[in-house]
Amino acid sequence: MIRSRLKELVDRCFVDGVQQGLWTGDAAGKYTVEIPKHENQGDFSTNIALVIAGLEKRNPRELAARFAALLEAERELIAAVAVAGPGFVNITISHSVWQQVITTVEAAGEQFGRSRVGGDRRVMVEFVSANPTGPLSVGHGRQAILGDAIARLLEATGHHVYREYYYNNAGRQMRVLGESVRARYLELVGEPDSFPEDGYQGEYIYDIARELVAEAGDGLKDVVEVEPFQRKAEAVIFKDISATLARMGIVFDKYFNERSLYENGAIDEVVAELRAKGLVYEEQGATWFRTSRFGQEKDRVIIKSSGEPTYRLPDIAYHREKFRREFDWLIDIFGSDHIATIPDVLAGVTALGYEADKVTVILHQFVTLLRDGKQVKMSTRKATFVTVDELLDEVGADAARFFFMMRKPDSQLEFDLDLAASQSQENPVYYVQYGHARLCSILRQAGEKGVAVGADSDVDTALLGEDDEIALLKAMAAFPALIESAALQLEPHRVIFYLMDLAGRLHSYYNKHRVIGDDPALSQARLSLIVALRTVFRNGLHIVGLTAPETM
RNA sequence: GCGCCCGUAGCUCAGCUGGAUAGAGCAACGGACUUCUAAUCCGUAGGCCGCAGGUUCGAAUCCUGCCGGGCGCGCCA
User: Fold this and answer.
1) Is the CB of A61 under 7 A from strand B?
2) Does A33 map to a domain?
3) Closest protein CA to C1' of nucleotide B11, residue
4) Sheet harboring A413-416: ordered strands across?
């Protein structure tokens, strides 16, 4: 906001300098205006002199001094200019400019931080995509929160977001699930059948079987096909999965199933197209895709000698469907164990004539759970994993969201159950939410004491001159740019770090200064700051799907 | 063996995509409640940014090679 205004100013001074013959125009677009690391280095800093010096082999400090002289003339934004270090030009913005942020925030209200940079681009975010063979585990939980937070950030920045969940219901995995349910069913109606060797052992399989007994008694005991059992399992488990996701505030626009790709002929079309382009061949009874043409080590089987496709084929067909549905940007969120499938899918869509550039894949690392300081051992096979539902029971939706968002996807995530569940000071979720509650509390007090939070015409924001007040104003001013960049970089964790920082500044300020005091004008000014801060907290929390409690 | 990710304070992790003197939260230690919520604050201590080279005005960040950890490398998904 202010940074972009300053950038325009710097650009103008740069051009002025070119016209005056102080330097050439070569550095255009190469220098930056940034917020420096240390507070004694001004509010903003530009490396323009260093860039020019590098290009023209000149003395950076001298160039910096000349550039500073040009900036000095601009007094509406700038309070001070200084040359520092190897040749940085540090710029201090006038307090009055920061103080105007309060008006800006209140004018925008709920829209503060939201933007239209997305330009209505249509984006699909595919995430979770767990096959309905059992309840969601904590690994899926991370993906669910990550994907939803990314979706929310994109929505906040003017994208049209479509959330989609893809699952395989045509393959072996779901067949085994059906067989597992049938075995439990037969066991329950007194006709024990051998349980499949690689069957699903979880207690939930019995639950599904019990539902079948309740509905049909022993009427299904002579059914040989696995189909009815599989369908039932899929339906029941999906109902549970959707309910779990809903507990976290996640709703998908569509559950896309693999089987539909067979039914509408998409699978056959993909094979035919690839074959027509000479990218498919038969060997040892299987059908191979020439992935080696796309920079891979070797070709891959897409149809097994048994006639059954491998997972690759439907994955490619599914991605072709995404392209056909005319999205501008396709975001896939996968666990890091799916890394091997990505090149195949991208090779597939490239081969079919689509721009693989439109696909962004985010791989997230695994989650380890910590309880009593020790790692919780989990095994999918034995169904000893901790489910998302159990996690939500234990720590609640906000803490789960917060903890899953706290780390960038590339990092493995250690989820400390005791910390997330603790209602105490070391829990960062409460630290941030308490910030918002505290602001609400101050405003409640103001109301009770009859200190009206005046229309901003009565408020003299120039009274907000304390260092920590200016720091709070600066932090608020940085919020829109933060949201924009977190959205475009697909990095929700940055919002969390921002909120923790803002909360820290607020709590510190609160302990140092009284908002409602003896001086009515000062109280008014500070209350206007509190109102603006509340807006930023609320917007920040809401944009990433967290609640903003008014009391705690 | 090959590919991707990670390695930063005792622990868990940030570090705005190459900037200036390295950051936060926990844990440790010492302080602050007659006050708008102490779910808070203030202070102290804590570092060979895995190691070694290279690129340049400048590297935690980029390139190469090692070391250590995770995930993959199927006619499983």
Assistant:
1) no
2) yes
3) A373
4) A374-375, A367-371, A413-416
Q: Is the CB of A168 under 7 A from strand B?
A: yes
Q: Is the ipTM here above 0.90? A: yes
Which of A28, A59, A93 delimits the end of a domain?
Answer: A93
Which nucleotide C1' is nearest A416 CA?
A: B12
**Spacing of A33 CA from B63 C1' in Å:** 27
- Round the CA-based radius of gyration of chain A to a whole number and report it: 29
A427: the nucleotide nearest its CA (via C1') is: B39
Q: Is A137 a domain residue? A: no
Q: Which CATH number fits the domain that encloses residue A60? A: 3.30.1360.70
Q: Which of A34, A464, A393 is nearest to A247 (CA)?
A: A393
Q: Whole-angstrom Cα distance, residue A409 to residue A430?
A: 23
**Cross-strand pairs, A126:** A164, A332
At residue A347's C-alpha, the angle toward residues A341 and A350, to 5°, is 140
Under a CB-based contact definition with an 8 Å cutoff, are residues A221 and A191 in contact? yes
3-state secondary structure A355-398: CHHHEEEEEECCEEEEECCEECCCCCCCCCCCEHHHHHHHHCHH
Q: Is residue A165 part of a domain?
A: no
pLDDT along chain A (552 residues), means of 10: 89 93 89 87 92 88 93 88 91 94 94 96 96 90 96 97 94 89 92 84 91 93 90 94 96 95 95 95 93 89 93 95 96 93 94 94 91 76 77 91 93 86 76 95 90 71 92 94 95 95 95 91 94 97 96 90
Question: Among A189, A215, A247, which residue terminates a domain?
Answer: A247
Range of the domain at A530: 425-543
- By C1' distance from the Cα of A428, the closest nucleotide is B25
Count of domains for chain A = 3
Distance from C-alpha of A212 to C-alpha of A181, rounded to nearest angstrom? 9
What element of type H or E holds A505?
Answer: helix A493-512
Is A511's CB less than 7 Å from nucleic acid strand B?
yes
Query: CATH number, domain at A458?
Result: 1.10.730.10
Domain assignment of residue A524, yes or no: yes
Cβ A512 to strand B below 7 Å: yes
Q: Which residues pair with A375 in a beta bridge?
A: A370
Query: Of A409, A509, A411, which Cα lies nearest the Cα of A466?
Result: A509
Query: Strand B within 7 Å of which CB atoms in A 81-110?
Result: 84-86, 88, 90
The strand B neighbours among A residues 515-534, by Cβ under 7 Å, are 515-516
Distance, CA of A198 to CA of A180 (rounded, Å): 9
Q: Among chain A residues 195 through 224, which have CB within 7 angstroms of nucleic chain B?
A: none
Whether residues A70 and A177 fall in one domain: no
The CA-CA-CA angle for residues A63, A69, A74, to 5°, reads 135
Considering all nucleic acid strands, name the nucleotide whose C1' atom is nearest to the C-alpha of residue A443: B36
* CB proximity A406–strand B (7 Å threshold): yes
DSSP state, residue A35: -
